[in-house]
């Protein structure tokens, strides 16, 4: 057991020999010495087998066959071929034509409660393309009625109206004989009407769909009145097919309206044909 010395009191001299550390050779260890066990032959063979197994596993993980080496090069070759085809062998023209629209929705206040009973909920508009179509002149082309779908908007007709107006203008610019009033052929443009159904959910309520269909029939009847001979008497006449005769013919009066519908608007249009207020032949 190690011996402990008492601490010196204040003022007492301590010899230097007593402050030296004890000799490590004289101290004894409290722990027992561990005995070394020799490794047997079975333990050596198992250790050697584990080393061989780890080497084989490592070599299998990093071994490369010919297929695995050629596959990345083949993928790179296909990528380069696709890039070359996209850059040098594209047959499509590298440009796009943008569509610009300047819509003008002309209100038709005459289509009021005297024509239908939904004047407070629905309305009818005539689409005009600013800079192309005359804004204040009465319609003199072929009437088309656009019906939007469930929770749609009457302004969805603007793409159809703008493109048809621009195409008709280009057609007249290329061949003046297509003029509707003085030309030989008398090709007419398209007059797009559109109904504002207040963005109602016609797909979720059957009564709403019936009311919209009834309004469509009333709108068709009113549109045809805009093309009556009395309302078109002030317009110029169209040249005859035989210019030598010197005669002229009035503009043809439409007797029907073309319906263009989107989504549930098509169901509303089909329902309109079955209602009692449907104008026959329109």
UniProtKB/TrEMBL annotation:
InterPro entries: AB_hydrolase_fold (IPR029058), PGAP1-ab_dom-like (IPR012908), PGAP1/BST1 (IPR039529). Keywords: Endoplasmic reticulum, Hydrolase, Membrane, Protein transport, Transmembrane, Transmembrane helix, Transport. Pfam families: PGAP1 (PF07819). Signal peptide: none annotated. Residues 21-40 have a biased composition (Low complexity). GO terms for cellular component: endoplasmic reticulum membrane. Its EC number is 3.1.-.-. It is an enzyme of class 3 (hydrolase). It comes from the Eukaryota. Coiled coil: none annotated. The keyword Transport applies. The keyword Manganese does not apply. Belongs to the GPI inositol-deacylase family. Involved in inositol deacylation of GPI-anchored proteins which plays important roles in the quality control and ER-associated degradation of GPI-anchored proteins. This is GPI inositol-deacylase. It comes from Piptocephalis cylindrospora.
